[in-house]
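Q: Please design a sequence for this.
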């Protein structure tokens, strides 16, 4: 199964047009190669942002003078609120289009190859195509980068066969396979081969500029192109060639791709069931510094005679390797998110981001103990013994991007776009890492996790309702109350209610029949803990509604 898409960034207009052109050719051509593709493959042709394309197209076509047409001055974002950053959403999955794409990729079809078209190409070339430059993310299976290189080689070969020069790779641009938020990059953590091309082209004719260094063939630009006028039709033709190259190798090696995605999933499950160590760049640097220190001390204490028995000799003694196998630094067998944390509602939202990416999550049906800690019923459990283990690790563990220097002592090469996101850290979720296998009285969450419903104590007789401000959804409840015309305060000092002490900043909502309904509904649907009280707000500041502009 091969996925190819276009139009994610709607102002990158080539993506949508090559999608239409390639689909047309697939269903209209009768040549032997195209018929082989249709026989051997399931091809998913995906428009990633059709509303954005409509907006951009209408804006471009409103100008009758072809020389003045432009899509560079649109006064609206083509993706509401986020614009270009819709391609940074695929690890958290907040947007409907991203959620639908993830559903197709990770729940329904599981394509072995995902090809994501973008613009624009590096100066002096027509297109960037895989392979990518280092680093790749060390959490995913080695068959991922190897598969990318294989498919990338097929793409570049077909360009040369068809006499289409100007396609660069690796160091020809900054694109790597490290970060985890894009349409084609999150797939790596799901055992899929993700491809990215960046291609020049505009409906308005343009010039392909001269970059002198790109006139000399090299490993990452084997077939240079001369500067020349450039038309949109040429970019579409290059895109179709790239698509056909992917379809061709997918057809010829379909059994290998199917077996490899199975093999990667099994590898991940096996790794999650045994002790493993994810070696990080920091650990490697620390070990090398330790070796260098010992080597220097050994050399300083040696004369020419004793140098002959230098323990280092020509290599490093294997005992140093044990530093990379510290039992305390083992990969987690699983992660537990206790239901007792202050903002369990946000933990539920985090779990649902995992579920949208088809991570298996369990929920405790009774209290249990694991790793010497007691956990209440309702706690979430994410075990690492699953096919998408790489995504689990990437959402829970720190991002340790390798140092990448142009030369020793030289300036660092920045990571492409981002060094990565750790979603559990961003959302402030509390969790424990379990280094040994464990069991629990748990059930698998089917679909999405549901917030644990709360009851409002003393709701009928309360003079006011108090909500802990550490709960993110407390602000949702407060804004609903303010919208209804309720009186709301923030207390200026800690507020103790029996055995519970709320911190300074806690919200106090004056009880009325309307606010009672609001807080009871929020406690039930959002899982926001609300405490009724017969006391007043005391030392507190009254809140007023605010208009928020984005």
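A: Design:
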């Amino acid at each position: 199964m091969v996925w190819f898409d276009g139009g994610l960034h709607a102002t990158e207009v080539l993506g949508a047009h090559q999608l239409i052109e390639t689909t047309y050719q697939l269903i209209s051509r009768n040549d032997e190669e195209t018929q082989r593709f249709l026989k051997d493959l399931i091809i998913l042709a995906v428009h990633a942002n059709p509303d954005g394309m409509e907006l951009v197209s209408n804006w471009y076509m409103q100008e009758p003078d072809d020389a003045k047409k432009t899509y560079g001055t649109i006064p609206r974002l083509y993706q509401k609120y986020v614009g270009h950053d819709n391609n940074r959403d695929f690890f958290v999955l907040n947007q409907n289009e991203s959620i639908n794409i993830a559903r197709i990729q990770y729940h329904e079809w599981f394509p072995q190859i995902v090809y994501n078209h973008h613009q624009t190409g590096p100066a002096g070339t027509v297109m960037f195509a895989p392979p990518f430059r280092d680093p790749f993310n060390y959490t995913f299976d080695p068959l991922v980068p190897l598969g990318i290189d294989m498919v990338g080689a097929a793409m570049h070969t077909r360009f040369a066969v068809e006499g289409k020069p100007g396609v660069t790779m690796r160091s020809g641009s900054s694109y790597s396979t490290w970060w985890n938020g894009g349409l084609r990059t999150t797939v790596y953590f799901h055992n899929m081969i993700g491809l990215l091309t960046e291609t020049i082209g505009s409906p308005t004719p343009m010039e392909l500029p001269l970059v002198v260094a790109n006139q000399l063939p090299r490993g990452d630009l084997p077939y240079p192109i001369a500067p020349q006028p450039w038309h949109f039709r040429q970019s579409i033709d290059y895109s179709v060639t790239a698509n056909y190259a992917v379809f061709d190798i997918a057809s010829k090696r379909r059994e290998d791709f199917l077996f490899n995605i199975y093999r990667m999933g099994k590898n991940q499950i096996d790794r999650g069931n045994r002790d493993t160590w994810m070696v990080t760049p920091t650990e490697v640097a620390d070990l090398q510094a330790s070796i260098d220190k010992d080597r220097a001390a050994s050399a300083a204490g040696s004369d020419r005679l004793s140098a002959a028995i230098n323990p280092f000799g020509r290599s490093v003694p294997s005992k140093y390797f044990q530093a990379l196998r510290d039992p305390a630094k083992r990969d987690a067998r699983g992660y537990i998110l206790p239901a007792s944390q202050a903002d369990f509602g946000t933990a539920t939202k985090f779990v649902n981001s995992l579920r949208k990416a088809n991570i298996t999550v369990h929920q405790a049906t009774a209290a249990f103990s694991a790793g010497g800690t007691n956990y209440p019923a309702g706690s979430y459990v994410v075990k690492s013994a699953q096919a998408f283990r790489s995504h689990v690790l990437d959402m829970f563990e720190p991002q340790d991007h390798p140092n990448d220097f142009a030369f020793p002592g030289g300036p660092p090469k920045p990571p492409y776009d981002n060094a990565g996101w750790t979603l559990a850290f961003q959302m402030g979720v509390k969790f424990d890492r379990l280094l040994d296998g464990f069991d629990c009285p748990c059930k698998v969450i089917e679909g999405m996790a549901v917030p644990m419903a709360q009851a409002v104590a003393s709701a009928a007789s309360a003079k006011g309702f108090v909500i802990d401000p550490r709960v993110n959804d407390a602000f949702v409840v407060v804004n609903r109350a303010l919208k209804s015309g309720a009186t709301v305060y923030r207390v200026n000092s800690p507020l103790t209610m029996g055995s519970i002490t709320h911190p300074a900043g806690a919200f106090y909502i004056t009880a009325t029949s309307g606010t009672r309904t609001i807080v009871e509904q929020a406690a039930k649907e959002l899982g926001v803990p609300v405490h009724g009280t017969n006391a007043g707000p005391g030392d507190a500041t009254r809140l007023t509604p605010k208009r928020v502009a984005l």
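Q: Thanks. Anything notable?
A: Residues 494 and 503 are 4 Å apart (CA to CA). The first strand starts at residue 2 and ends at 6.
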